[in-house]
Amino acid sequence: MAGNRYTGRLLTAGVTETINVPASDITPPVNQPLRVTAYPIVAGPGAPQTLDIQFTPSANVAGFPSGVKVDDSFQVGGAESLNFNTGFPLNTGLTLNVTGFPPTTGNYLIEVDSEVPNNFSFQSDARGVTDFTQAGFVGRSDLDDYYQIVVDQRPVEITLSGLKDDAKMELYQLQNGNPIFITSSDNTGNINEVIRDSLTGGTYLIRVTTEGKVTTDITNITDGGGASTPYNLSVTRNSGGDLGTQTNVERFLNTQISGHFYTIDPLEIQQATTNPILRKEFPPFSSSGTFTAQRYKNINNGAYFYATNAGDVASVQALQAWQLDDATAFQVYPINDLTRPANAIPVERFYNTILDGHFYSTNSADSAIARSIGFISEGTGFYALPAI
């Protein structure tokens, strides 16, 4: 996929501006359908429309409508669009001559988009198991781009860069054909978006989108409307090891239901600390590892369960009483992960059949207390680094 956006101002009636679109903005690794959309945009938020835009394309491509004026709306403020489904050959650019139907003048935004068909759907653009870097475009004519990747259990780093405007990136896991939201990166403006996460083996979707995004480039997109930007997406699967910095996992006791709550989220820690029902205890271990634990909540009694391996995730998702509460609770090392450091400690998991809740222990004193109040040991649940 590829694409870009162009802006300009037609200040004099009848004057034509020429936009030279390079091959790098059109042609991805294989021929893809091409779409060009021209939008008249107002001089500022709330200003009136003044331009009836039209454009004439030209390219040395068989079957392309070179020299044919695109002017179908016949109205001030109407958008114009050209679709060429055959696609462009490699290393072939495009010229657009842009003007206003006399005597109209005004500002404009043109989006050039070249991508696989239906890449806005969950099933499109499957990239398999290899790392990749890909140019793309999202904007008013194309809100969403989806990329499908397959990973085994390992850390993955996904970076969205080269932005001219505001966009966000989301990560989903496909389960039985349905997308399950995992996490997102949503900065403001043209700041890079980065997702670093440890994933269980399976199929995942990366969504790049401008949905709900208002332009932060008011100098060029003067109407202050929807964002429009090219981007570069890179996906790197790491061989293993820690992901991110080491942070203590804080533990809180719910004094009403005798259950425990674990978190590394600063806001959750602040809220739990000031909650009279919750009592803060010492941190049992730190967040560091190759698997992202997911927190699930029992809708019947408020108990929590922390899925720390792919089997846990599959099992708890099959139970209707448990709902995903936090897809990125903290990092751990699954028991079969041989990349764990030598100083990683076993975390024993206990289950209470009356409370339908779990408890996690890293020392003999905690384990003894858990057994004395009816918790049953399920053995080592995962490995973690000691609290710092």
From TrEMBL:
SUPFAM superfamilies: Collagen-binding domain. It holds the Pfam family DUF5648. It comes from the Bacteria. InterPro entries: DUF5648 (IPR043708). This is DUF5648 domain-containing protein. Residues 249-385 form the DUF5648 domain.
